[in-house]
Amino acid sequence: MKRLILTLIAAAAVQPAAAQIAFRPVVEQALDDVILPSYASLAEAASAETGAMTTLCTEPSAETLDAARAGFADLVTAFGRVELYRIGPAREDNRFERLFFWPDRRSRGLHQVQGIVADEDETATDPATLYDKSVAVQGLLALDFVLAGDGSESITEPGSFRCRYGASIAQVIQRNAEEMLDDWQGPDGYATLMRAADGNIYRTHGEVAQDLIKAAAEELQIVGDFKLGNVLGDSAKDARPRLAPFWRSGLALSSIVANIDGVTALGGVLAGALPEAEAEMGGALGFELGRARAVIAPLADDPRPFEDLVADPDAYRRLEYARSPIGGAFRVLDQRMPGALGLTLGFNSLDGD
User: Fold this and answer.
1) Domain segments of the chain: what residues?
2) What is the pLDDT of residue 7?
3) Which of 11, 93, 96, 346 is deepest in the core (most CB within 10 A)?
4) Burial call 106-133: b when 16+ CB within 10 Å, e when fewer
5) CA torsion sign, 269 to 275 to 279 to 282?
């Protein structure tokens, strides 16, 4: 209760400052230069992966399997750049969870995927019936298991059930990616509501900016505390690399790099609303994110399995170090930038976790 009261007092105190800042230009730029193109890239990557999986099933070979895995890597990267937008179209019909069921507590989702593969449940090879199943069996992590999990060598066998299930997953992913893009950019879409800020969802463009800053801050908290913190543990001997999403395919760190890139792109635009006296804050945000990326990106290119990478003392130390600039960037977005813009982020979806 005390925290809620302080939040309300702070919100009341900063309203005059926010009213003096022109938020609309940065909202327009964020939509036109970052959000909509990123969702278009996701839809494009999803369509390409559907094609690659279909070819793999009809023409199974080492080459078509490599192509499907490469397409999956592109898809994971494209999703990683929009993962921070847990708002609007991503919330409709559980689309976010359909795409990315993580964390998978107690591996319940994994067990469902394994059950479908073991039982060769033919209803999962039809995208329409797959869509009606658990969200855990139709998204990126389900496809990750199909392409790189135990038994994945069977995917190139003629008539492989595993391949047909994977192709069905890819089609459901494409459906959700295209529906989200449509719901963002349609005539009455979420982008239109953000541009209008006429009280339908947002009363002001400052509220839109506030929501976007909050989304970026939360993504960094997830990366720092969960994707890295929970995986690395308190020491190398306590590390649990299999908690990381996409560890099977070796894309765990590529996904994090994409997360950082998504936040960097959005944060750089939103920093354009800062008053001149606070403009250095945008540079500070970019600097911290750049430091984190410079550490993680070379490790993402390391061909070793993720478990072996985390077990390497030098790689472990570098990943642990990366949490520091990620934390610094989080504080810029969570505390410094909202204060400079006269905004209050309030509670986030991770409060209490």
Assistant:
1) 23-195, 204-341
2) 43
3) 96
4) eeebbebbbebbeeebeebbebeebbeb
5) negative
251: its two tokens = 């894309």
Task: Extract long-range pairs of 46-50: CB within 8 Å, 24+ residues apart.
Answer: 46/75, 46/78, 46/170, 46/173, 46/174, 46/176, 46/177, 46/178, 47/174, 47/178, 48/74, 48/75, 49/74, 49/75, 49/143, 49/170, 49/173, 49/174, 50/167, 50/170, 50/171, 50/173, 50/174
Q: Is the pLDDT of residue 334 over 80?
A: yes
Give the confidence band of 344 by pLDDT, cuts at 50, 70, 90: confident
Architecture of domain 204-341: Up-down Bundle (1.20)
Length of the chain (residues): 353
pLDDT in tens, 242-256: 999 999 999 999 999
* In contact, 99 and 139? CB cutoff 8 Å: yes
- Domain 23-195 fold is A middle domain of Talin 1 (1.20.1420)
Average pLDDT over residues 265-277: 96
Cα distance between residue 292 and residue 271, in whole Å = 19
Reference 307, options 226, 347, 252; nearest CA is: 252
Among 62, 251, 77, CA closest to 152: 62
Do residues 342 and 15 touch, judged by C-beta distance below 8 A? yes
Contacts of 290-299 with CB under 8 Å at 24 or more apart are 290/264, 291/322, 291/325, 292/260, 292/322, 292/325, 292/326, 292/329, 293/257, 293/260, 293/261, 293/264, 295/319, 295/321, 295/322, 295/325, 296/253, 296/256, 296/257, 296/260, 296/322, 297/253, 297/257, 299/253
